[in-house]
Amino acid sequence: MGKLDGKVAVVTGAARGQGRSHAVTLARAGADIIALDICADIESVQYPLASPADLAETQHLVEKEDRRCVTYQADVREPAQVREAVDGGVAELGRLDIVVANAGITALGPALSGSAFLDTVNVNFQGVVNVVTAAYPHLRAGASIIATGSVAAMFRGATDIRQQGPGGAGYSLSKREIARFVHDLALALAPESIRVNAVHPGNVNTDMLHNAAMYKVFRPELDDVTPEDFEPASAAMFPLPISWLEPRDISEAVLFFASDEARYVTGQQLRVDGGCALTHTPALPNP
């Protein structure tokens, strides 16, 4: 018996990285999966995004867990595309119990235009709103909504517009708004017994972290930053002796929030960050 037997989850940004890990982890626990991803590049993003082949591989990995998986190429910035995908997935799989609003981008660099800000906010925050809005008519008591935030929402100075450009500012804004959205939505949906929580990762070992634009953020003094140059700079963020987190570390938190083990847990902002926000946040909220 799995923790999620008989349940169906929708996961955005499911073609690779954290999204793929979440989809496979939930499937291993018994859930069928509706997997969404844009499977196309966005002009302001300076690293390749996932491909249709990546999304097909996620489907293959879910089906290896003996669970059903339906996939859709959908841009979370477009409400109609998201609604069509969610409705289609529910029609095929029969229900919807779990929403993992995970799709996200970084568009870093001081030379980028304001489109980097707008693309980032529209994917990272408005994309969360769009998938929750599309999913809500299908949700019933006991459902769980989980959004991917970031430790960038947890403290000031997580991004610097002078160094990281408008996309960095958009990233911080979008992740702060996810935290607020989750808090207020949890209150709004509590009478319906629908839970809403956020997971806020630190640096995670995915393509979003391992690319030239991100490396340059961490080592701006170098012209050509190698992975070997980047690793100690990333490790310096963590009190724990690590260089980054693995996607599975975030997926375990997603699984907890999705399961009945968290049936009375709602409105939480859970940092899975190797301790990197500790020196920036108080032990207790201000009275």
UniProtKB/TrEMBL annotation:
Give the range the annotation lists for the signal sequence: none
Q: Which GO terms describe its molecular function?
A: oxidoreductase activity, acting on the CH-OH group of donors, NAD or NADP as acceptor
**InterPro entries per UniProt:** NAD(P)-bd_dom_sf (IPR036291), SDR_fam (IPR002347), SDR_subfam_1 (IPR023985)
Q: Name one Pfam family in it.
A: adh_short_C2
User: Which keywords has UniProt assigned to this entry?
Assistant: NAD, Oxidoreductase
What family does the database annotate?
Answer: Belongs to the short-chain dehydrogenases/reductases (SDR) family.
This protein is called what?
A: NAD(P)-dependent oxidoreductase
